[in-house]
Amino acid sequence: MAQDPFSAGVDIGGTKISAVIVNGAGEIVGRAKKKTKAALGFAEVMNRTAECLAQAAEEAGTAVAALNVVGVGAPGPLLPDGTVVNAPNMGWSRVPLSKSLQTLFHCPVYSENDCNAGTFGEYKLGAGIGAKMLVGLFMGTGLGGGIIIDGKIITGVNYMGAELGHITVQRGGRVCGCGKRGCLEAYASKTGMGFRFRHAILAEKRPSILHELSGKNLDNVSSSVLKQAWLAHDPVTVETLTEAAEYLGEGIANFITLLAPDVVVVGGGVFQELGRQLMPIVKRAAKEACFPAASFRHTKILPAKLGDDAVALGALAYARERQAAEV
After folding, report:
1. 305: which residues sit within 8 A by CB, 6+ positions away?
2. Residue extents of the structural domains in the chain
3. Which of 29, 107, 209, 277 is the one with CA 20 to 30 A from 254?
4. What pLDDT does residue 88 have?
């Protein structure tokens, strides 16, 4: 019997790298995770990515060089050749992601923006199956998203479109990681929440269990700690998460008003932990802000289904389509 053809998906995030190996039946047969350590520079992140994929391949009983194809999801706008144009949180500008990894992996590599990949994963395998138009939004350290229309990832004429987290929602508002002010990400992400946590706890001296639960690091509180504080009814946490969910809902309303998608999928680490609590707030804010009001009724707002695997599996699905198109 011929050996199953193995392929892989890789998610390079600001905090961690994760890799999955998939067999010919579409089953995940190997996994690995590794800290990104982006501060060590692009070359070191590439080496760590190669090590992570090698660990996953070993668990699956194969070798990286034997993989049919590897799909990679990474932060920032990416060109079709796999060049990352700009990823501020990683310190990358015009870095040859696909080319570098192909040299290390010795097999075909295709790369896409992580949130585009996550949205594509949900379209192919998760909550967005069957959607004609799908908008994906992922709330974590940052806020990213993607748009799928008739099975195609929408990136615009310059391949840098659909940066959904960077629409302006407050002119002259909070500084975002991209350098602009007032981006949706600056309000509806863990980084944005950190601004409010610091102001409430450190400047206003409001009591909050979050200070101790987070080890006094309020800049990027883990999603699991946020859940602990929410369930303990910590006022600062509840107010901050409610505000973030309301901003996210208003952002979704803008996308519904503009695009009228049949499905919006909401995911990311925060929603994996607190989706049941936050989704009603998101939907209420979206309904209040939609125009025309009837447009809200025609769009389903759904929780993502793939969890931590969305980006890796979506990147792999994207890579398979790119590879097939080139044959």
Report:
1. 122, 125, 126, 127
2. 7-114+309-326, 129-304
3. 277
4. 83
Query: What CATH class does 129-304 carry?
Result: alpha beta
Q: Model's pTM, two decimal places?
A: 0.94
**Strand ranges of the sheet holding 70-74, from the earlier edge strand across to the other edge:** 28-35, 16-22, 7-12, 70-74, 109-113
Contact present, 195 and 174 (Cβ < 8 Å): yes
Range 7-114+309-326 has CATH code 3.30.420.40: yes
Query: CA-to-CA distance for 288 and 292, rounded, in angstroms?
Result: 10
pLDDT of 246-304, one tens digit each?
Answer: 999 999 999 999 999 999 999 999 999 999 999 999 999 999 999 998 899 999 999 99
Nearest to 234 by CA among 268, 200, 195, 273: 200
- Please give the Cα distance from 208 to 185 (Å, whole number): 24
Helix (H) or strand (E) holding 105: helix 97-105
Element (H, E) at 9: strand 7-12
CA distances from 298 to 148, 256, 288, 321 (A): 17, 9, 15, 30
DSSP state of 168: B
Encode pLDDT of 67-105 as tens digits.
999 999 999 899 999 999 988 889 999 999 999 999 999
Structure tokens at 128: 């967005």
